[in-house]
Amino acid sequence: MPLVSQLFPPSVKMMVATPDIWQRQVQSAEEAAVRTAVKKRKREYRAGRHCAAAVLAQLGVVDFPLLNDSKRAPQWPQNIVGSLTHCDNFCCAVASSDPKIYSLGVDAEPLKPLPKETTPLICSENELSHLLANNLKENYWSAVIFSAKEAFYKAYFPLCREYLDFSQANIEFHPNKKTSGDQTQGEFVIQLLTPPHPALYNHTTFTGRFVITSSHILTAITLFKPV
Q1: Could you tell me the residue ranges of all domains in the chain?
Q2: Secondary structure string (H, E, C) spanning 184-196
Q3: How confident is the model at residue 201 (pLDDT cuts 50, 70, 90)?
Q4: Using 50, 70 and 90 to split pLDDT, how confident is the model at 184?
């Protein structure tokens, strides 16, 4: 929880999965959605839905089945925005009813580099040059690019309902000069290389946050309505 709380403003509620909820069944409508899924998928789905139920309860919403729409995007309650992520025994959910926030995205990845054959599909030459120019030489930074784009996409898709290719956005990282223990944290800036979209208030540049621990990459973005 402390790590996730570094990524979002105070009006965003959050819940990280505890070991006991990965196997426990969820609401009947949610359980039906994964009736034929493999064990791994059921486990991750249950953890995500239990976390979502916990954050919704913090916002005063109880017994709400969080189901996916036809494009597999979670359908949050009216006037609430949220996001889910899970990987390698880590799962969390975030949500907010803050009227100033119009979308959220969170992503978690294991701390390891992308496969060499995958990296060119995710990271542009410009992004890789930025890493080198800023002395971000550890081989896991390609995965941080992936995670940041995933976090943004989770905020982008519910609004725009359009596919966004990895090549259609450019990421730059700005780590804090001082880090805490074995953590690296800071901000990232994502620049869309697509035409402005009215669902994003025609903005094309957005700022998110990241934390890198000894085992995981956590990235997040909060989209605020224009003042």
Answers
A1: 2-105, 108-224
A2: EEEEEEEEECCCC
A3: very high
A4: very high
Q: CA angle at residue 87 from 150 to 130, to 5 degrees?
A: 40
Q: Which of 2-11, 41-50, 118-127 has the lowest mean pLDDT?
A: 2-11
Q: What is the dihedral of CA 167, 202, 156, 141, to 10 degrees?
A: 40
Compute the distance between CA of residue 206 and CA of residue 171 in angstroms, rounded to an integer.
10
Could you tell me if 41 and 55 are in contact, meaning their C-beta atoms sit under 8 angstroms apart?
A: no
Q: Within its chain, how far is the Cα of 132 from the centroid?
A: 25
Domain 2-105 identical in fold to domain 108-224: yes
Angle between helices 141-160 and 125-133 (to 10 degrees): 130
Alpha carbons 186 and 189: distance in angstroms, whole number: 10
Determine phi and psi for 155, rounding to 5 degrees.
Answer: -85, -35
At the topology level of CATH, where does 108-224 sit?
Ribosomal Protein L22; Chain A (3.90.470)
Per-residue pLDDT at 89 exceeds 90: no
pLDDT at 183 over 90: no
Residue 141 burial (C-beta neighbours within 10 Å; 0-12, 13-18, 19+): buried
Q: Once rounded to an integer, what is the mean pLDDT over residues 140-168?
A: 97
